[in-house]
Amino acid sequence: KEAVAHIKSFGCPVLVSDLVSIEELEVVFDNFNEGDAVFAAVSPPDSAKNIPGAFTAEQFTSLASNENIVLDPPLLTPPIKREQFIENSSSYSFIHQLTKGKRITKNSLKLLCNMYATRPSKIFGSYPQKGALLAGSDADLIVWSPVNEESTNMRGANTSLLRADIDSLIINGRLIRGNDQVSPGQLNGSYIFRNAIYETLSGVLK
Questions:
Q1: Which of 14, 57, 98, 127 is the most buried (most CB within 10 A)?
Q2: pTM of whole model > 0.85?
């Protein structure tokens, strides 16, 4: 409480991370007034540790209505490979951990993606404007299978993150379509390996 009060005295935006229980979340928000720029990053706890009052999947759903709350990956042992920072040997993914193995619906996936990616990028001012020639300008998240060669074009659909309706991409000013290949080393952004997430979600997004 003393640390939160000290930070508040400077009048700057505050983000408190690694919160794993309702009690911790209440301590943060009880020390701020409505309208203060305070944000909380909530996290599924390490399943190997017994944390009293740890967040449940249902509580995460209810917390999503608060625009000042974002989602952190679970506090698990760091993976061996740097690029596989979401998956590791003890959990398929943070989404699987959060839902406790329950079936993931389209709505809950959108909700989690908003808390994990869209909302934090808006808070930190890195969310691209629609129509701008910036990475991610026309999509918040794309779930794509590199092993599926079939293309089902549903032009005009507004739910691209859940469907294979992508006709082409523009990367570094180059039009990518059909059988064109992209080398991650030639891109300005970062390539994130997500095989485990795709295998976990592929059966519930059909």
A1: 98
A2: no
